[in-house]
Queue: 2 jobs
Job 1
Amino acid sequence: IIDQVGAREILDSRGNPTVEVEVLLDDGTLTRAAVPSGASTGEHEAVELRDGGDRYNGKGVTKAVRGVLDELGPAVVGAGLDATEQRLVDQVLIDTDGTPDKGRLGANAILGVSLAVAKAAAQSADLDLYRYVGGPNARILPVPMMNIINGGEHADNGIDFQEFMIAPIGASTFKESLQWGAEVYHALKSVLHKQGLNTALGDEGGFAPDLPGTDAAIAVIGEAVEKAGFKFGTDIAIALDAASTEFFADGLYSLEGKKFSSDDLVPYYEKLVADFPIVSIEDAFAEDDWDGWAAVTTAIGDKVQLVGDDLFVTNPERLAHGIEKGIANALLVKVNQIGTLTETLDAVELAHFSNYKTMMSHRSGETEDTTIADLAVAVGSGQIKTGAPARSERVAKYNQLLRIEEGLGDAARYAGDAAFPRFSA
Ligand code: PGA
Ligand code: ZN
């Protein structure tokens, strides 16, 4: 039984405030969850409540914290629920807020309670979180999509695409995949250095060199992959997040100094996929450009994974609309886009039932909380993106996956290239 719910304001990896929630059960179990925060947030995400005013440039979360202490906590405790009743707990949270976008009390407040309750239930049952959420068959370790060049809203360079990730699809264990990723990361640093490029980092721990654009960024990664002794394409492939909503305005995409209509952008992606070993592209089109999304899915959806982030915002209703229209073939999963664990699991379930792949994801503003690592294994998504293999708020998740793999022993399976959609040749 949930006995007490506490909350406080802490800092995230960008130095902005975020919500941390603590839950105490009547058996003495005490757990804590911290909430992440995006920069390139989708218009249709659940609402993150910020204080406004001068304090922390308006980004304080004292109102969200008060909402936990004064309303969400008392509602959950008052309902007298067992922590294992996640769906009922999350419904109480949703009803207490009472708005469709969770804007009254804030998705940041609601998610903190939701995740802390799940952790409490797991800990009270003496189970790892991935085991508690995923059951006895949860054993698939995800491919880490490591973001090693940062652009877009996550860096001050001139690269329009937001994320250039390496996917070590040829590794045989998660542990090996992480080693490969770190080796390529260090090789990339020296490749950039030799070319006289900046090796300062962006928000997700990747380098932020001033390269002219997408092709140059992928080329320099290819060089680093080979320098580190791996085969580009078979050992290590590329995954991109264009985050194109950020360079879309008035019906046009502004990319590398040119303006593209939706129709013009399709051949741009066709060429990218033909030129480079790309296994996945996220947000190739903007969040409400359903027609552009449909066109790109028709054109290359049989060759590459197309992931909806700002498009679907982990929202089962938006995902259902996309599935109905045959748009994209994978879902990006961000717990704070929808605001409760239950709704997150519902979105993943819908995706998997509909033959869509799922990629568990961090936000660009993160904390030391590692919940998403466990969730990736729990739902068997086979893919996780949680930044570069550097910076503790990113590495914390990868390190948790090392522990999970070790704990599973012989039962562990590394997803490898089976994580991605199967394409006929
Ligand atoms: P965000 O970026 O956390 O800044 O929204 C991550 C993403 O777009 O996938
Ligand atoms: Zn994205």
Job 2
Amino acid sequence: EKDGYDWFMRKEIFEQPRAVADALLGRHDGDGLLQLDEVRISEDELREVDKIVIIGCGTANYAGLVAKYAIEHWTRIPCEVELAHEFRYRDPILTRNTLVVAISQSGETADTLMAIRYARQQKARVLAVCNTNGSTIPRESDAVIYTHAGPEIGVASTKGFLTQLIACYLLGLYLAQVRGTKFGDEIAAVVDELAKMPDHVQCLLDSAEQVYELARTYAGTRSVLFLGRHAGFPVALEGALKLKELAYIHAEGFAAGELKHGPIALIEEGLPVFCVMPPRGRDQLHDKMVSAIQEIRARGARTLVLVEEGDEEVTRYADELIRLPVVPTLLQPVVATVPLQLFACELATAMGHDVDQPRNLAKSVTVE
Ligand code: BG6
């Protein structure tokens, strides 16, 4: 059942081109951009939404952080992202015009389930982004977008995450279409870019060996940092989470702009730091990230830079370069996450850990 792979996780990483294609399949037709799988929210109700709150735990929370950048940009609806277990204990402000988006691969995470029950009691509308048909969270939601990744067995989420991103992009575009905040051709242009994602992901997988070789050289390392900006910031968080979960290495993700406000004190000789370069289209962010990389390199860090093809500006400050396909900034997390998954999987393997069943973790946590 592992199809010749050593781990379900590795198999699931390599299934991502297909998973992403399935998540997009049939969602785009002549009349409307998104087919929600089950909907008890009308277009009129969606037009009245004045706030979105995205909840989830772990990797699902990071998918939510990416979604915020896209959904706010495309729809101009204020969007908050919150850990499901923090959400209902802080007396959140919810009305019937609040759309709560609950992201959960399993659909059974108790923290997320309790949060949506609370949200519905407060009359908010709840939309689930979920991978498991008929699971509890979609059953208790007003609408659901299934991510169609297929069963995910490895405890650390991979194809679950990428397809959650796709579902959230589609939701954002659908809301933009229903509310008229983007023209049809603008939406179609993003959909075209999304349609290229399976091929982009496949290209990254085809050069997995480069990342594997790199990972194996870090088997004894004690700490790894991850830096990103904008939509690359949640990618940094997700990269760090994968390393914690699988390799039991101290790993932290930071927004690169925050570096000078504290984390730069951690930089020391030889410390590996992954840096997710924003695409060149984002000039200001791009330049700022180049200076952040210079700063940490000057202090002796080893810079492992994820950067799009053709971007040579950062080359001389990079100890290692991992090339990414050229994609729009908001969609970059779909590609930038993949090398970080490969890195964590291979490093944990090299360290002799059980990648599919990391210590102390469960695939879905059904207690609060
Ligand atoms: C954690 C898993 O317990 O639950 C994570 O270890 C996962 O990998 C998180 O991201 C949320 O799970 P779900 O099923 O709600 O997406």
